[in-house]
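PROTEIN FOLDING TASK:
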Amino acid sequence: MPFSFFPARLQAKETGFPFLSSSALDYQGGVDFLFCSAPGQPSGGEMPGAIEQIPNVNVKALVLLLSQLLRHMETRGYGCRRTFMKSMKQWSCMAMDLILQEKERVLAMMESLQAASIMAIMLPPMFRALSWTLGGLHCSSIPLSIRMFSERADKSRSLADKVAVITGSTKGIGFAIARHLAQNGAHVVICSRKQWNVDQAVTTLQKEGLSVTGTVCHVGKAEDRDRLVAKALEHHKGIDFLVCVAGVNPLVGSTLGASEQVWDKILDVNVKAPTLLLSQLLPHMESRGGGSVVLVSSVAAYMPISKLGVYNTSKTALLGLCKSLAMELAPKGIRVNSIVPGLIKTDFIQMEKTLPYTLSDLNKIYGLQRLGEPEDCAGIVSFLCSSDASYITGENITVAGYSPKL
């Protein structure tokens, strides 16, 4: 059972760490996750030594404890890529912007992707409610049992009796997402522009015992979108999730040299189509009491790829569309988020000559150990559709093995 949780009060004293570390090793001889919730913000007024207390408890104690646990985490088969994410709202900082004042939680979790992978998430008090969605670990003085945590997490992630429509879903990222949502209990409606691809994908997933149907749909054509909606409602009276993966890029070349037809095609499929499709599905999502929409952008929105200017622009537009739709649909109980995949092993990545960075370059800059797999995007989409993400909307989440915004 890869889980360890300790309700101990963390102090920035090296002498206290061996006791805490040895207690962690008593269970199974190793550590998988480190959850640190030890705010060092004085409760009120200015206290003697407060300026020293904040960095000591909020930052130094975390680093020293992690340094002691690191080798025990590495022995569990986890590795050394580091990804740091901070909340959108930046609080005033101390010590060269490394210390976030009034920080409520610092979450460091290990994912078995490659040797030594560490993800640290720093959340301010405004996200206190997220501690409940992350398994109910909310500063309790009584540790939750491993079994209780696992059962609660499994139940909350269940997508049973939910209906998901996924565009561009017969291969690559879209197919991986369709499989993952179906494995979590959802009925999934997949589509692509070619009947043969639809038939093959549906057959493959149905052989796995998954609830899947499909239809041909070019999302840039109104009549095809109508057919997709009708297919989704054929056996179900509502729709819960929309995941927009379908995208095109007919041009590799100069941005200013792109014809009006190229601009129209890319923007129609990559930006306009998700919006028009959502407008058709909206009444059916509202009838279910709400839902979740996930747009699939690209790391090209943050790090433009040479000779793909129009495509880069369309993917950047999706980031803004996510924010706008999230604000507009929040009163209807519909959440809108986007994922921003990095270099994922898909047909698109075959255009290696257009990429400004090689894997070795990214390894030197960010410590990136490998290219992503389509499945690396599937889990986060399933999470965003689940009740675990009920307090998350309007977020653009990078799935790249590193943050291009560093």
About this structure: Residues 1-10, 78-157 have pLDDT under 50 and may be disordered. The chain has eleven helices and 13 strands.
